[in-house]
């Protein structure tokens, strides 16, 4: 007879309910693999009376979740509330202080307070597990901490948000505009009713902070990350990109440059033939570059009840096996801060779409702006709209500094021939 380990689940929405059913169905298999029998002892949620797909005995419900860390018959607390403040924060801090193992899917909490929580977990000899916080069904965190432990990682990047990837893929293949695709994504459940953190890149940025810290063995960066979302991406740019052999993706990119940390989240044009260029729909994918492994690619569904539950079960099994591990792979004392790389020094090729008045001398004026900012043009396409007396000028540049692109955009905005702010998208080699 295997030893029983008591679990409390806090937060019982779609994810919590699904996880409960998966755990109940697979408890014997988990017991065989870990030598421990997991038992959901208590459940707590904001609304106990809410109709759910699973029936829970009244004896399991706890009204005040903050009482759980103080209860002697609770060994593991699984936090599925979300958010970096409020009950979630209080619960996790209290649980670790009271020597309870914690498993969470809360990326916001880990990205903001991960260093403090890790120190607390180490002090009290308990586990803080958060595989489900990044890329759901992809075991990226455990892969970096354990599978790639022998590697000196210098770059990690990929598609970390399934909602935005679905939107961009649907715009391209369905030839539909942003608002139409977003509306459909909400109907299908791929986007929340208020998906702003997905669309503006903040969700991906939080995940990137976590991955950077683990990959480079550093404190979680408090630096402002260059973060641009997809709200202003148009079908027009996606279709022009195709003509030049590119796909448009929202990428999260973290790398060490000049012994400093560069973190960026923004739309990118990448080659049609690249691996990431062929990751469509709600899939996520992460690329890790280092030595001696070279390049490793992991892909899978990044969100939803199934992938999230898979990650939660993985963390649970790790705890049940009894291994007390450093939450970020190495001790908190060994993790040092790292200086921020100046994003203005970043070098890339780029795509510009400039809407101009269709008049003699306009093209010459535009190309002169590029030359004045020391930016060399690789490809140029001019698409006139005679009816409206305007034209679209599409330019692909050779590699140049971010600061030169910023200066160029300022100059173009002052150009009397330019109708509206130019579209600027970086091109990444992946």
Could you characterize the architecture of this molecule?
The chain is α/β, with parallel strands linked by helices. It folds into three domains: 3-133, Rossmann fold; 140-300, Dihydrodipicolinate Reductase, domain 2, CATH 3.30.360.10; 344-427, ACT domain (Alpha-Beta Plaits). It contains twelve helices and 16 strands. Strands 6, 7, 8, 9, 10, 11, 12, 13, 14, 15 and 16 form an eleven-stranded mixed beta sheet that branches. The chain has a five-stranded parallel beta sheet with strand order 2-1-3-4-5, with helices on both faces. A hairpin with a 2-residue loop joins strand 8 (246-257) and strand 9 (260-271). Helix 1 (14-34) runs parallel beside helix 10 (305-320), helix 2 (86-97) packs parallel to helix 3 and helix 5 (162-174) packs across helix 6 (178-188). The protein is elongated. It starts with a strand and ends with a strand.
SSE layout and pairings?
Blueprint (H helix, E strand, L loop, with lengths): L2 E8 L3 H21 L1 E9 L31 E4 L6 H12 L3 E4 L2 H17 L4 E2 L10 H8 L4 E8 L2 H13 L3 H11 L7 H4 L2 H15 L9 E2 L7 H9 L2 E12 L2 E12 L11 E9 L2 E8 L3 H16 L26 E11 L4 H11 L4 E9 L4 E8 L2 E2 H13 L8 E5 L3
Parallel strand pairs: 1-2, 1-3, 3-4, 4-5, 7-9, 9-16
Antiparallel strand pairs: 6-8, 6-10, 8-9, 10-11, 12-14, 12-15, 12-16, 13-14
